[in-house]
């Protein structure tokens, strides 16, 4: 166990406190068990799932269910720890700042003051060592991590239960539940990671699992294409994550002369907050990390993979879009907020890269939702828009509002996605225009839960989406009418973007509800309500979409008891050296009223078009219409141009596929062909031709003339000598005596000459 990270709650002398401790309850110190359970479930299902009575789904549900219970208990332990932790004596480490701004790690023994709010629970162990540098693995548990543990395990549990009915009879049923478990484990590991290297590993695991689940039905080419598109697009952004993590590692090393570098999230944030890291370094790192956020959390212009990911089974869509993969980028910003806050100079500004990208994404996603026929793609673009809301909030310094919207969004968006799956389960299609309509009479439970999710998403009081959306708008600091001032800057442009998105969200969800549940049924067969394993999770999520907003009622809100006012922020927002000092905007009744009127105006405009004009046209035509035959796109060229632009998704896919991909593949393919034909093949041909010529020379000149000639000459010589010897070997004794006499004479002569 590395004891460096049990740190004081406040600075000692010139030291910078990180605000983390190794103290705390058993649950907080052993939170690693929560991601371990679904990871073990993955292994168990993979090896034994097909032999189990329910194909391994029971093992996945049991593991995630136990993880959810542990997450609940961890939440209770955190609430107690947050306000009532008393340490008899804890080991304290403070980053000491010298006169030149350099930081040094220093350990001290100190007592935790009784009654002082405790800070994050941090535990590490050595992962590996190389060249004298120690790399650790561990957990960092604070209010943000606990909240995410609850959300991920709950939504994952409901998705597991829902999937037992939805993918029943699937040819890869066991495979599906195995990767569902690994997906959950990967996200849970990411949530509790104590350093950026560990976070990076979990981040990539999430990407691999999403690839496997999106392409679950890989036999159909659109599904495998969607999985590859998601994987490759995320790899583009992940290059930014690799560079950003590397920059921060060496930057921390330069600020800590006694260390080569640091992947510690708490240390990196604390160094950024203290000014120990240069602004240029933080800008570069934050911009690189932002690229990863853009791809993982579907921010414009790297959002194009996310709607295509709807090719996967609907439970996967719900899990990806509500609680896991796409919110990983938002979580990463919230976790590394010191780097982003200082890098983009969020405090005291009116615009920055993060806030602008988030605001633009909210509008881009909302507009694209208007032209979709597929109900899941409407919700996919809605997710893009709402993720933009969260990034916008983080970009203006409204940290708690962003995280609270992540919390509420998980429930109502999961409800909507699972509701769309229930509808498709009944009509065997996702096409709202061709195969739906009038389903409220056939599917009352699905209709009611879908309506609850829609109202929450639109942001109407008193449902959850209203409270989190309104808190984001207040956090922009751009509203000063009749109260509601403050915040970290005057982000008036972001306020306008948020208001416009609120109206657009209400309008496109009104369209979605009409095409799905109203009018006449346009599909085939007789639709029916889904079973309890589908409607049960829908009602649980719908109930949470109603009550979740009450966990963070505005401070001073007269209709709420004091115990509910800002409770979410109190327990979730860190109070530590690794978190920047941010300002909190004050609530505004006038802004709440205006934003609600904006939502109502969006509902009214869309409702008038569909429930009045389209309904009347349907009755006149004697058939169920989905659009006016002489609508705006037929009358006005500008509207037609806008519709064409949206139908082609801003031509981004054309640009990526036709310009970037084909423009890259074309020249590369031609170059590769030229190299293959003119270099590689030509080299092989020349070598072959040379070998043939050399072989011919060897055969004709050396083999035939020299080798064979020598052998033939030797043979002829041997044959002649044999003939002569045969004459000598006549069998006559006198001949042999004559030969012996001649040989003796010759030998005697040689001896005489030599001697």
Task: Describe the overall structure.
With 755 residues, this protein is mainly alpha-helical. Among the domains are: 361-606, no CATH class; 648-698. It has helices at residues 26-29, 33-48, 57-84, 143-166, 173-192, 196-214, 221-255, 265-274, 279-296, 305-308, 314-322, 325-335, 337-343, 353-369, 375-395, 399-427, 432-435, 444-458, 464-475, 492-517, 532-547, 567-572, 589-621, 632-635, 637-647, 652-728, 733-754; strands at 15-16, 20-21, 90-97, 103-110, 120-130, 133-141. It has a 3-stranded antiparallel β-sheet with strand order 1-3-4. The protein has a 3-stranded mixed β-sheet with strand order 2-5-6. Strand 5 and strand 6 form a beta hairpin. The longest helix has 77 residues, at 652-728. It is elongated, with a radius of gyration of 37 Å. The termini are far apart. The model is unreliable at 1-16, 87-94 and 104-117 (pLDDT under 50).
How many extended strands? 6
* Strand line-up across the major sheet: 1-3-4
Q: What kind of sheet is the major sheet?
A: 3 strands, antiparallel
Overall form: elongated
């Amino acid at each position: 166990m590395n004891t460096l990270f049990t740190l004081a709650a406040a600075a000692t002398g010139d030291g910078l406190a990180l605000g983390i401790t190794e103290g705390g309850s058993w649950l907080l110190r052993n939170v690693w068990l929560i991601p371990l359970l679904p990871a073990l479930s993955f292994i168990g299902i993979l090896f034994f799932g097909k032999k189990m009575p329910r194909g391994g789904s029971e093992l996945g549900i049991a593991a995630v269910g136990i993880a959810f219970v542990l997450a609940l208990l961890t939440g209770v332990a955190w609430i107690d720890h947050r306000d009532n932790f008393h340490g008899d004596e804890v080991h304290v480490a403070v980053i000491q700042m010298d006169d030149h701004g350099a930081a040094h790690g220093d350990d001290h023994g100190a007592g935790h003051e009784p009654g002082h709010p405790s800070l994050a629970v941090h535990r590490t162990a050595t992962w590996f060592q190389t060249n004298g540098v120690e790399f650790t693995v561990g957990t960092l548990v604070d209010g943000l991590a606990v909240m995410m543990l609850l959300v991920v395990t709950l939504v994952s549990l409901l998705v597991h239960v829902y999937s037992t009915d939805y993918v029943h009879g699937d040819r890869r049923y066991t495979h599906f539940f195995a990767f569902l478990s690994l997906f959950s484990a990967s996200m849970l590991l990411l949530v509790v990671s104590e350093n950026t290297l560990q976070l990076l590993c979990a981040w990539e695991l999430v990407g691999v699992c999403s690839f496997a689940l999106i392409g679950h039905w890989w036999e159909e080419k659109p599904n495998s294409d969607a999985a590859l598109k998601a994987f490759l697009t995320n790899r583009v952004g992940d290059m930014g994550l690799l560079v950003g993590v590397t920059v921060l590692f060496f930057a921390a090393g330069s600020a800590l002369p006694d260390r080569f570098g640091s992947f510690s999230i708490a240390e990196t944030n604390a160094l950024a907050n203290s000014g120990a890291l240069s602004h240029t370094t933080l800008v570069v790192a934050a911009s690189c990390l932002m690229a990863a956020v853009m791809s993982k959390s579907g921010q414009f212009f790297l959002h194009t993979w996310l709607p295509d990911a709807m090719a996967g089974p609907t439970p996967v869509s719900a899990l990806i879009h509500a609680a896991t993969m796409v919110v990983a980028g938002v979580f990463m910003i919230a976790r590394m907020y010191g780097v982003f806050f200082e890098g983009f100079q969020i405090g005291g500004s009116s615009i920055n890269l993060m806030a602008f990208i988030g605001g633009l994404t909210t509008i881009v996603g909302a507009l694209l939702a208007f032209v979709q026929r597929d109900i899941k793609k409407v919700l996919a673009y809605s997710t893009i828009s709402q993720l933009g809301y969260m990034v916008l909030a983080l970009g203006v310094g409204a940290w708690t509002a962003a995280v609270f919207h992540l919390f509420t969004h998980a429930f109502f968006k999961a409800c909507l996605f699972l509701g769309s799956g229930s509808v498709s389960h009944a009509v065997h299609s996702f096409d709202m225009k061709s195969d739906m309509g009038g389903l409220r009479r056939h599917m009352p439970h699905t209709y009611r839960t879908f309506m609850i999710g829609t109202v929450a998403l639109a942001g109407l009081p008193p449902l959850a989406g209203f409270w989190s959306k309104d808190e984001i708008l207040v956090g922009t600091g751009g509203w000063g009418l009749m109260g509601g001032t403050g915040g970290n800057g005057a982000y008036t442009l972001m306020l306008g973007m948020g208001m416009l998105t609120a109206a657009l969200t209400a309008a496109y969800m009104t369209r979605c509800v009409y095409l799905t549940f109203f009018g006449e049924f346009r599909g085939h067969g007789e639709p029916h309500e889904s079973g309890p394993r589908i409607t049960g999770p829908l009602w649980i999520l719908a109930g949470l979409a109603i009550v979740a907003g009450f966990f963070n009622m505005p401070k001073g809100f007269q209709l709420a008891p004091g115990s509910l006012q800002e409770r979410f922020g109190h327990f979730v927002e860190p109070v530590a050296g690794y978190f920047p000092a941010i300002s909190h905007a004050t609530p505004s009744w006038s802004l709440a009223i205006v934003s609600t009127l904006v939502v109502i105006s969006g509902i009214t405009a869309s409702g008038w078009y569909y429930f009045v004009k389209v309904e009347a046209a349907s009755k006149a035509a004697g058939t169920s219409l989905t659009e006016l035959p002489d609508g705006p796109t037929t009358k006005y060229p500008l509207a037609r141009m806008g519709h064409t632009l949206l139908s082609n998704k801003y031509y981004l896919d054309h640009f990526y596929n036709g310009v970037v991909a084909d423009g890259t593949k074309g020249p590369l393919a031609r170059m590769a062909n030229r190299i293959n034909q003119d270099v590689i093949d030509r080299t092989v041909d020349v070598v072959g031709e040379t070998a043939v010529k050399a072989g011919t020379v060897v055969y004709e000149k050396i083999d035939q003339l020299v080798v064979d000639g020598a052998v033939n000459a030797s043979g002829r010589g041997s044959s002649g000598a044999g003939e002569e010897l045969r004459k000598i070997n006549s069998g006559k004794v006198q001949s042999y005596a004559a030969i012996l006499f001649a040989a003796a004479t010759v030998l005697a002569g040689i001896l005489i000459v030599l001697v």
